């Protein structure tokens, strides 16, 4: 159970859904966001994995699918987000208030499009990405799987950012970025290789939370 889980809960509620509980495998966590915390996800569906760190979010999704091949993942889009009717958004993705997703953009599975972030026309955001608050990805850009575009960053049109990258806060990306690096600055330059490792090295893998709501005809609502 986490801060992002509470955000997901409020998005579900803003859409008229309900959240009965959070799930976390830390036995010391008993309550989050005014809801009880359960410690076992067995039999629960649909869910949203509400973890901000991309690599761990992917790990938990894969674990859940391995344990339950029929599990369904909800998608949470806040009513105050602006999403083009021609945009496509994958399962498990969360779109936060104030986000904008423009025409023919494709957002993959289990992404986070955070507060005030914008995704331009014809962009492709691959699975497990996080477009952080106030980040702007201009039209025709491709962001690879697992990449984090940091707070307040800007990406000019038709760039390619590789997979498992970290784009530092406030950066301006004016050229393509290769896979597995940390890049920052104005203009953004590669500073650290193996970006996935560096992006996640301080994050514990012991706890997780799942999010969901009464999407479709679900019988159990969790977050």
Helix content: 10-25%
CATH-defined topology of the largest domain = UDP N-Acetylglucosamine Acyltransferase, domain 1
Quote the beta fraction.
15-25%
Distance between the termini: 8 Å
CATH superfamily of the largest domain: Hexapeptide repeat proteins
Main sheet strand line-up: 5-8-11-14-17-20-22-23
- By secondary-structure content and strand pairing, the structural class works out as alpha/beta
- Residue-averaged pLDDT: 84
Low confidence ranges: 202-223
Tally of separate domains: 2
CATH architecture designation of the largest domain: 3 Solenoid
Question: If you had to describe this structure to a student in words, what would you say it looks like?
Answer:
The chain has 223 residues and is α/β, with parallel strands linked by helices. The chain folds into 2 domains: 3-74 and 205-211, no CATH class; 78-200, UDP N-Acetylglucosamine Acyltransferase, domain 1 (3 Solenoid), CATH 2.160.10. Helices cover 14% and strands 25% of the residues. It contains 3 helices and 24 strands. The strands form 5 sheets. It has an 8-stranded mixed sheet. Strands 6-9-12-15-18-21 form a 6-stranded parallel sheet, with no helix packed on it. A 5-stranded parallel sheet has the order 7-10-13-16-19, with no helix packed on it. A hairpin with a 4-residue loop joins strand 22 (181-184) and strand 23 (189-193). The protein is globular and about 45 Å long. 47% of the residues are buried.
